[in-house]
User: Fold this.
Amino acid sequence: MSSSTDRTTTTKDTVLPKDNEKGKEEKKGFIDNRETQISTKKSKFNELIQWLQKWGYSVIDRSKDNKNAEILFRAEVSPLVSYSSGTNTPLFLEFQNGLDDGFIIRTTYELDKYVELHLKNQNRAREIELTYIEIEQIILPMRVSIIRAPPKINIYKVIFSEQATKQFFYDCINDLVNAMSLIIGKWDQKYYEIKPKTTASKEDSEKPFKQNQL
Assistant:
């Protein structure tokens, strides 16, 4: 009986170290794979920044300023020319943890507070909603995704790294800039289409007409 117990103990003692070694190897393999992915993303990130700079874009690496744990690398890209509204809203190039084989370019349109106030004062809720629908109908065929968060519109494109040749990436940047221009133009159009409602005050309407006012 004692001999059987000793053999069992010996067997367990020889198996456990192997299991521990296997666990260490798996952990090391995971860490190595993770480091390889980060290194690959960093290399592609730097390459894309170099392309943008060669094309004349002003690019600032915001990776160190980033406080979002899901974003590994982020760059702020200024448009080559200001939009029709006079704004110079930047684009962002981002490599995220949850997207192993690609990256995102995005920007945000924020409805001018004066335009928004003008439309709301005219009780034009229906026109506002129709404008959002029209914007989606224009932008979505350009393969630009939209997230509505009034008074903001977030637009973005997901690009797979294997597709990101110079020409393809250049076209994607232009798609995003053009989409932003179309959104700005659509809201400007809506602003000028809607004439302010003017109503005479009760006091003015009750004033007697005087011949000498002619």
Residues 84 and 185 are 8 Å apart (CA to CA). The two ends are 126 Å apart (CA to CA). Strands lie at 58-61, 71-78, 91-96, 102-110, 145-149, 152-160. Residues 32-193 form a domain with the Yope Regulator; Chain: A, fold (CATH 3.30.1460.10).
